[in-house]
Fold this sequence. Notes:
This protein is mainly α. It folds into 2 domains: 3-86 and 189-245, no CATH class; 93-182. It is built from 11 helices and no strands. Helix 5 packs antiparallel against helix 6. The longest helix is centred in the middle third of the chain and has 56 residues, at 57-112. The protein is rod-shaped.
Amino acid sequence: xxxxxxxxxxxxxLDAIPAGEVKEPSIPVEAFIQEAENLTLWASSDAASxxxxxxxxxxxxxxxxxxxxxxxxxxxxxxxRHTQKQAEKDWQEQSPxxxxxxxxxxxxxxxxxxxxxxxxxxxxxxxxxxxNDDLIQDLNDLAVLGRENTALLSLISFDESxxxxxxxxxxxxxxxxxxxxxxxxxxxxxxILRDRAYVYLKxxxxxxxxxxxxxxxxxPERLVGYVSHYWxxxxxxxxxxxxxxx
Length: 246
């Protein structure tokens, strides 16, 4: 079964995890997946012994399925995050031109509509807004306002092509900003899916490890397979650093 199928297989179980129990991985996902796959092989050799602690063959064989689901979810989030980061880069590069165009239109409209209080009020309303979302809306609003009052704009030799630029830029930047904002939203769907897949795998890994530590508490040669070597290395490194700075 490939990783994509693994994710489909456990999707209902992932959806059933209460929101309050969903959390980010406390260990690099790649390292955790490898530890789960290692645990599958190790526990398979101990299946008979683990059975006395309630671990079934079905539970052991479920490990690679959950690991595959997490790998797929991680890849989906990585791709989504990459797309969003590119959108952030595109926004940073393109938004200054949008801001300059907005300011140029406001300046021209303020002068062209200076004798019409109603139009001045509409220009002021646009000027009051701020923020990225507002910038896109401002460009579109100014394009519409300009098209409705070309006669007044012609009196100041206004370049009407700027109205088309404003409308086009608003259309172009809206999806870019939507993607860029996605990377800053904690509720990102791809990230939540990844976190759910992590919790689902961790639940089983923890259960099998606890059983292994109980069953093989007097057998260090088998016990070693039921500890996280990632955290063991981390603790060893921390101890070494403390001794070095002491």
